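Recall that a protein's primary structure is simply its ordered list of amino acids. Everything else, from secondary elements to tertiary packing, is in principle encoded there. The following example makes that idea concrete.
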Amino acid sequence: MNPFYRLAGLFLFVLFISSCKETVKSNTEAPLATDPVPEKIKLIFDTDANNELDDQHALAYMLLNGNTFDVRGITVNATINGEGIQGHYDEAERILQLCNLKDSVPLLKGAEGNFQEISKDFDPLNYDGSEGVDFLLEETKKDSVLIVAVGKLTNIALALKKDPSFAKRTKIIWLGSNYPEPGEYNQDNDTISMNYVLNSSIPFEMVTVRYGKPSGTDAVSVTKAEINQKMPGLGPMATQPITGRHGGTFATFGDYSVSLFEHIFDHIDDNGPKNSRPLFDMVALAILKDASWGETKGIPAPILIDNQWVERPNNPRKIVLWENFEKDGILQDFFTTLAQPVFITATAK
């Protein structure tokens, strides 16, 4: 072989080995200041904030995860618990205040009634929930924003009814349903709105609840003892304390969490008193932060008829089903977030 070509080949080999070493080195080192910053998840949170206690914990988790979430606004809807739309609005506002974000993040009232009531003789210029629903429509026109819905789906269905093009510019992550079994609070509060959304073309991901099953968000639960041990004093110190929904004055979300857990056990369900409660709604945010904390599969969109799920195997419309959640990872991240909060960037109204 010509010595020139032998020398050139040796040079290229050495160059290749050096490149490989540099690649391995760069993959193990900490990111450089010049590296691109991961894009935050732009979202609107649609909640029945005063229903139980999981909404409040989800709100705090979201608002204090500033490295992950870009929160464009919060909309509320009214379910059968929570003292009407004003009660849900007031509770969401309390959490914003505890995170020193009151009046910095848009908070808007959505639907008080259900979809069937509101859509009958629908007037797109004047309807129940218009403030919150119109916000969903306008914000999704401005930017690529997804919607995390953790209550009934009335606001989402109304947005689709008023403007069908809404389906083309966002995605819905919904915490709800015991699918494939019947029953579940968010679902039962407005079944017709859920079916309306399932029959639409909007991208839809269902984060299952599955009461009493290890495969749903019901399994991501914390005990009162854990809350009493870990939560006192966690979160930022509020510049203006709140009066809690059960009375008392609170300056941190951690202290308010203890109060919420104390009073939730006054409730006795069909299975008698419990010493733990699931943080259902918080899971819908956690899986956006780390998808490995749950498992997904695509299914043809089913429909609920007479409170029974009906499969539609030939339905070309597909949805994503979330199940089998990593309880320990999710809860550890929740407690870490409250202990080391990073504020979201305030959004001017």
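Confidence is low (pLDDT under 50) at residues 3-31. DSSP finds twelve helices and 14 strands in the chain.
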